[in-house]
Specification:
The chain has 10 helices and 7 strands. By secondary structure, the protein is α/β, with parallel strands linked by helices.
Length: about 250
C-alpha cells in the first residue's frame, strides 16, 4: 500500500445536514469569513497552520470548501487548487465571491459541486495535497467518515500530503471537564457534527497514511473556551474579540 503523510457525538441525517449548509450558503447577511464557521480567529489559526505545509508546485484539493474562504486564502501559495462541496449554494457563493474580489482564476482555482463519498480519481485526477478542514465531522456516521478517508487517500499521489483538521470528541470532553471545574457550563454538542474519537481515528488513518505531525490547538481552545468566558462573565464571549485574536497569535 502506498504511504502518504498526514497532519493532523451525535449522529445526524445526511439530507438535514445538506439542507443546513444550503441555507447557510443563502444567508447573504452573514459575512464570507463566518458563513461556515462563526469562530473567525480559530479559522484564521487553521489557515495559518495549513499554509506552513504548502508548496508552490502542489496541486491541491480542498474538500468541503464551503464558500471558498480557506481556498482563496491559500490559492496564491500553490500551483492549482480545486474546491469541492456537496452544497450547490455554497459553491455558487464561492464563485460569486471570487468574482467580486477578482481572485477567481479559472486556471488555478476551480470550484465544483461534489460529494466526498463519491470522490474518485476519474472526477478531478490526483493531487499532491488534500485538505479536510472541518469537513468530515459533517458526515453522519463513523462508517461514512471512514469511507470518506479512503476516498481521499485514493486521489492522493504516492507520497502526497493529507492535512486533516477536524473536531476531536476527546478534546471536547477535556475542555468540558475543565469548564465544569471552574464553574462554566459544558459546551453544547453541535447537532450536525460527529466528532472523531482519537484512538480509533488514528488507527484507521494509519492504514493509508504515515502520520508525520500531530498539532493541537490547545492554547487557543483554553483561552477562547475557558479563560475568555470567565473574563467576561456573566456576558457571553464574542468570537471576534481581541482576546481570541491574542489567543490565535499565541497558538501560532
Amino acid at each position: 500500500m502506498e504511504q502518504h503523510s498526514i497532519i493532523g457525538d451525535t449522529e445526524g441525517d445526511t439530507e438535514k445536514v445538506k439542507e443546513f449548509w444550503q441555507d447557510r450558503g443563502n444567508q447573504s447577511d452573514v459575512s464570507d469569513k463566518e458563513v461556515t464557521h462563526h469562530d473567525f480567529w480559530q479559522r484564521h489559526l487553521e489557515i495559518e497552520l495549513i499554509k506552513k505545509f504548502l508548496v508552490h508546485s502542489a496541486r491541491v484539493l480542498d474538500v468541503g470548501c464551503g464558500n471558498g474562504y480557506t481556498t482563496n486564502h491559500i490559492a496564491p501559495m500553490v500551483r492549482e487548487i480545486v474546491g469541492i462541496d456537496f452544497s450547490e449554494n455554497m459553491i455558487n457563493r464561492a464563485i460569486e465571491e471570487g468574482q467580486k474580489k477578482n481572485i477567481l482564476d479559472k486556471e488555478s482555482i476551480v470550484f465544483k459541486v461534489a460529494n466526498v463519498l463519491d470522490l474518485d480519481p476519474s472526477l478531478f485526477g490526483y493531487f499532491d495535497i488534500v485538505i479536510s478542514e472541518r469537513c468530515l465531522i459533517n458526515l453522519d456516521s463513523w462508517e461514512n467518515q471512514k469511507k470518506a478517508i479512503s476516498k481521499l487517500a485514493s486521489v492522493l499521489k504516492p507520497g502526497g500530503l493529507f492535512i486533516f483538521v477536524e473536531g476531536s470528541k476527546n478534546g471536547r470532553e477535556r475542555l468540558n471537564e475543565m469548564r465544569k471545574a471552574v464553574g462554566l457550563e459544558a459546551m453544547p454538542s453541535v447537532w450536525h457534527n460527529v466528532d472523531f474519537e482519537e484512538k480509533a481515528t488514528l488507527e484507521f488513518l494509519s492504514k493509508f497514511f504515515e502520520i508525520n505531525h500531530r498539532l493541537h490547538l490547545g492554547v487557543y481552545d483554553f483561552i477562547s473556551r475557558i479563560f475568555h468566558p470567565l473574563l467576561v462573565a456573566p456576558d457571553e464571549p464574542k468570537y471576534d474579540s481581541h482576546v481570541n485574536e491574542v489567543a490565535a497569535k499565541l497558538a501560532l
